[in-house]
Amino acid sequence: MIAITNVTLYTMTGGSEKGSLLVDDNGTIKALGRVNIPEGTTIIDGDGGILMPGIIDAHGHAGVAEEGLGWEGSDVNESVDPITSNLRALDGINPAEEGIGEALEGGVTTMCVVPGSANVIGGEGVIIHMHGRTVDEMVIRESGGLKIAFGENPKRVYSGQKKSPSTRMAIAALLREQLTKAKSYQKKWQNAEPGKEPDQDPKMDVLVRVLNKEIPLRAHAHRADDIMTAVRIAEEFDVNIVVEHCTEGHLIADILAAKGIAAVIGPTMTTRSKVELKNRTFKTLLALHEAGVKFALTMDHPVLHVQYLPLAAAFAVKEGLPREEALKALTIYPAEILGIDDHYGSLVEGKMADLVLWDGDPLDIQSRVKSVFVHGQQVV
Question: What is the Cα Rg of the chain in Å?
C-alpha cells in the first residue's frame, strides 16, 4: 500500500482539496482527502504538488505510426482498399515506440489507438495503457470502436489510385453498402439452422457488432457537412457514433447537442494544412461546451505529440473555456466517451490509481510532471 501525501487533489468530480491519496495493493484508490495512513504504508511526499487522474487521449496513433522511422514504422493506414473493417490497431502497435514512452513521461497514461483515415472503413481501435512490455499487457479494452473516415483523406488516397471513392458521395455510398451487407449477414446468422450457418466473414462480424451497438463508429470528419453525413448514416442504421476532429463543430454545436453526440476535438494547434481545416479555432471547444456537447481533446499523435495535450487545454481556456472543463476534457470526459469511466478518469474510491503528480498547475507551461502511476505502480 502507498500513500501520496501533501498534495492538492484534482478529483474531476468535486473540485479540488488538499490532502492525501491512499492506494491499496490491488492498484485501486482506497481513500483520499484527510485519510488515516496505516502503519507499514509506503509514503510518497507530494511536496505541495497537484495530483490528478492520468491524462486520456481518446484518439491517437502511438505505436502504429512510429516516430523517426519513415515508411518502416508506418502501420496506420492499409491504403490499398477503402474497406478494411477487419483490421485491428492492436496488431500493429510497437510497445517500445519512443512516442509511447514520452507520452507517459508527459502524464498521458491511456490512449485509444485507432487506424488512420485513408480508408472509408479503417479498422478497430484499441484502448491501452501507455506502459507495458507487450501490447497484451497494455490493453484496457480490445475494441475502442470502428474507425471510419469522411472528406479529403479517402478522396485524396483513392482518386490518386484512379478508383472509388473519389467523391464525398462515393464515401457515403460505400459505407452504406457495407452496413447494408452487414444487416443481411446478421439476419442470415440469426435465421440459420444449426450446422447450416453462413461462412464466417471477419469484415461483416465487426460491422454486426456496430449494428448491435456493442462498439461505436469513430467518424473522422472535419467539415460540418461531413459531420452531418456521418450523423445521417448513423441514424439511418441506428448505430452509435463519435465524431473525431470535429473542426467545424462550432457551426453545428446545437445539432450535435440535441442528438447527444460526443466529439473528440483536435489537433487544433496544427496549421491549416488542408482545405477542411479552414475554420480551425480553439473557440470550437467553448461553443460545444455552451451547447452541452460532451467532448475530449486530442493531438492526433504523432501529428502533434500527445504529451502537449495540457498545452492545448490551456489555449482553450485562453479562448474562454472554463478551466475545470478543460481539465475534464483531458480525463473524465474521454473516459466517458470511451466507456471506461467506471475505472478511469477521476479520483474516486474504488477506481484504478492511474495518477499524475505535477509540481504546479497542469495548464501552466512551466509545470513539470514529477511522477506517474499506472494501477498504483510508479512508472515515471
Answer: 21
Query: Are 228 and 251 spatial neighbours (Cβ–Cβ below 8 Å)?
Result: no
Mean pLDDT of the chain: 96
Question: Which residues on adjacent β-strands are paired with residue 22?
Answer: 3, 31
Of 353, 372, 371, give the one whose Cα is nearest residue 23.
353
Measure the CA–CA gap between 380 and 371, rounded to whole angstroms. Answer: 5
- Is 160 or 181 the better-scoring residue by pLDDT? 181
Q: DSSP of 101-168, one letter per residue?
A: HHHHHTTEEEEEE---SSSSEEEE-EEEES--SSHHHHEEES---EEEE-SHHHHHHHHTTT-S--SH
User: 43 in helix, strand or coil?
Assistant: strand
Q: Which cell numbers hold the place of 319? A: 479562448
Q: Which amino acid is at 234?
A: A
| DSSP bridge partners of 143 | none
pLDDT tens per residue across span 163-175: 999 999 999 999 9
Task: Find how far residue 307's CA is from the centre of its chain.
Answer: 14
Closest CA to 305 of 117, 106, 93, 76: 106
The predicted structure's pLDDT at residue 260: 98
The number of C-alpha atoms within 13 Å of 32 and in the hemisphere containing its C-beta is 27
CB 11 within 8 A of CB 347: yes
Q: How many whole angstroms separate alpha carbon 297 and alpha carbon 58?
A: 8
Number of other residues whose CB lies within 10 A of the CB of residue 368: 13
Q: How far is CA 80 from CA 77, 170, 182, 238, in A?
A: 9, 16, 22, 29
Residue 33 is given by DSSP the state E
What's the pLDDT tens digit per position in 240-262? 999 999 999 999 999 999 999 99
Residue appearing with cell numbers 461505436: 216
Select from 320, 330, 222 the least CA-distant residue to 268. Answer: 222
**C-alpha cell read off for 268:** 487544433
Residues in the chain: 380
* pTM > 0.85: yes
Q: At residue 202, what are phi and psi to the nearest 5 degrees?
A: -55, -35
Domains of the chain: 1-53+345-380 (2.30.40.10), 55-343 (3.20.20.140)
- Residue 115: is the preceding peptide bond cis (ω within 30°)? no
